[in-house]
Write a structure and sequence with these properties.
Distance between the termini: 30 Å
Strand order of the largest sheet: 3-2-1-4-5-6
Oligomer: single chain
Number of strands: 6
Number of helices: 6
Order of helices and strands: EHHEEHEHEHEH
Helix content: 25-40%
Amino acid sequence: MKVNNRYCSFYYRNDPVTQEISYRPNETALMLIDLQNYFVDRPDFGSEQEAHEWEEMYRYIHETVIPNNERLLTFARENEILVVHAVIESSFEDGRERSLSHRRPTFNNIIIAPNTYESKIIEPLTPQKNEVMIKKTAHSAVDSSLVLLLNNLGITDIIATGLVTDQCVSSTVRGLSDHNFRVWVVEDATMAGTFELRDNELTILNNTYCNVVNTEEIVNVLSKDESEREN
C-alpha cells in the first residue's frame, strides 16, 4: 500500500497511492538507530581521497540527519510517543560476543566497548527517563525481548531513523516488519555511505517492509492528530 510515489521500485510502479500516513501516538514508537558518537564523529582518514569519499555522508549527518532526529525526538516526547534508542555496544571489552556480520574486515569490523565515549548516544539526542535502550552486537536491533516489550506496550507502528540506512537500519526494519509491526522510515533522518546507497536501500525497503516518508510529513501528521484530539 503506497503513501507516495517516492523510492518506488519496479515491483510497485503501477500501484496507486491508496494509503495515508496515519498512526495513533499511544501505539507508536520512535526508534533511533545507532546515533552514537562512534558513527557520527568524523574519524581521522588515512588519505585525502578517503576523506573526500566519506564527506558526503558526514556532511549530511550533521547538516540534516541530526537536526531532523532532534525535531522528531522533541515531537515524540511532546506527544507521549514511546522512544527507543538502539546502539552497538559489546558486553565484553574485546567484543568476543559479536555476530559474524560484525567480525567482517574493514567497515563492519566493529568493536564498541561498554561505557565508552564511542558507545554513547550523541548529546542532542541523550535519552531521558522512561525511554528504552537497546544494546546490540549485530546489525538488527530486533530480538525476542524487544518484540515482547513492544507487544506488551501495545505498540503497532514504528517510526525508524538512524545510521546507516543500508545496514543496521535496513536489518532492523526488515525484522520489525517480519514481526508484524507497521514501519515508517524517515528518509531525511537516515543516511548511508553515499546518497546512492541510501536511496537504493530505501527503494528496496519501501512498500515491502515499510513506507518511506520524511520528517515534515511525520510532524504534520502528529500536529494534525494533536489538533483533532484537542477538538
